[in-house]
Amino acid sequence: MSHHAPDPNKSVNLTIDGIPVTVPEGTTILEAARKVNVSIPVLCHHPDVKVRAVCRLCVVECDGGRKLKAACSNEVWEGLSVVTDNARLRGIRRMILELILAEHPQDCLACIRNQTCELQALAHQFGIYKPGFPVEARHFPRVVDTETLVRDMSKCVKCGRCVAVCQDVQNVRAINTSHRSVHYEITTPYDKPLIEGLCVYCGQCSAVCPVGAIYENDQTDQVWQAIDDPERHVVVQTAPAVRVALGDEFGLAPGAISTGKLVSALKRLGFDKVFDTDFSADVTIMEEGHEFLHRLSNGGKLPMITSCSPGWVNFMEVFYPDLLPHLSTCKSPQQMFGALAKTYYPNAYGVDPAKVTVVSIMPCTAKKFESKRPEMNSSGYRDVDVVLTTRELGRMIKIAGINFEALPESDYDSIMGQSSGAAAIFGTSGGVMEAALRTVYEAATGKELKSLDFEAVRGHEGIKRTEVAVGDATVKIIVVNGLRNARRVMNSVRRGECDAHFIEVMSCPGGCVGGGGQPYGTSKTKLSRMDGLYEIDRSLPIRQSHKNPEVAALYEKFLGAPLGEKSHKLLHTHYSTQGKNHWSVPHVTITGRGK
Description:
The protein has helices at 29-35, 87-102, 118-125, 161-169, 204-208, 220-228, 259-269, 277-298, 310-319, 333-341, 344-349, 366-371, 390-399, 421-424, 431-445, 483-494, 523-539, 549-559, 565-571; strands at 11-16, 19-24, 59-62, 68-70, 81-83, 142-145, 149-151, 176-178, 185-187, 214-216, 233-238, 273-276, 304-305, 356-362, 386-389, 463-470, 473-481, 502-506, 588-591. By secondary structure, the protein is α/β, with parallel strands linked by helices. α8 (277-298) crosses α10 (333-341) and α8 (277-298) crosses α15 (431-445). It starts with 10 loop residues before the first strand and ends with a strand.
């Protein structure tokens, strides 16, 4: 087979199980098989991470030869004949699975990935219902790092997906491999807790792990206890990206908009008020937009960089502490909501703020960490008490026996439930920047925009650049998708080579639609979720943050003006050059075997 660089414009003809197929040069056998609906089993392979070909489940016969090839890592060639299924291949795959299971704990009922575990699904597919070899499962303590991520390496199948996403996609390198042969392990540098390393808690490792080796720290019990406590007044907020992802947990199409059913489910669960993080996303734009204009007009530190993504903020503190002055001082929408839910909301409704519990439903594992930051208490109380991921909310709804698909549509509660289309697109890469531009332009010029759609900042590209005329000024924009790309841009800022005025960074590929706490999926799933959020934006009568009536009422009745004294106290913060290793948050809990 030729080793020249593949030409995607050149076609290759082959057969897979006798089925003719034509694909571009450079296509892998696995990709070609999927084009003709032939399913080849995989475990280590994930379409969003670098191919490692370590599990060998996907081996196939090529051209009748005795030598087997991994379908995930080998490209097709002209005239190739592939066999994907026969007695020999089934036997090999079954043996591989039985060997993996022999080292794996046999406690599926106690595992958080029960019925969503890829290893369990493969065992079922191959009819493996009891161990084929003596079980010698390894037992490691379960480690909970800063209430955010759980590592149960007894369940690790050594597929390397977490290493690939951490190193190649995010370029953080908090997870690595050690030793060789039977001693090969997935671990952290020097086997230290994540809090003592470089981890930024983006959770992408948990999003690609096929089993229950890395996952979000389930805090649903805390929420049940708060709801069941008659002394607590429990309010909940839902992030933009949740409404286009939660349906995945219940078999809806990827990207399906389930806002009304989401609200109904939360009310059925017993929350006292169901509010929308989109409301505080609009507030964020009011504060961040005016902060940018202030910096632009008064010689402030430029480029100004968004601070909505907590994984990104953690990344800055760890790798670029010298550039922290470039970060917006705005809290994230989650934390702004928490501060207002314990000040503005209690004042309006006569509720004792000491009895208010704020729960967040977020697409993000780093939001759990953010809520525990010591500076997030400007209301006089902890701004946000508990953060659940989209996956955790899905579990609560199932536990409660709620038929999600059959739920009626419900509206969010006022006074923190109305939002604009600009807030909805916060959940996509480029959405924060587009939302900000819709308000910044009119705030600076006093003129209406001819079009609210800034197509140049949309999409899944790693780095997007554009220029926008704001009055007499030309504002240079950069939108960054994922932390690997953020490193490239930040290096240019550090070297003084970046001429941008305003930069958006989202830590997770695709933005919050691809957050570490979202239902398991791939880039294709994320694109469907993006489409869902843009559909919400197009459908709403209000598409600019400053035109949200509830936001206007907030400033008129409570905050005063953007960047005012009260808003500065409640809605802005600072970030420490010391880095996360010095934060006074719970660090590590080590337990025995658990779920």
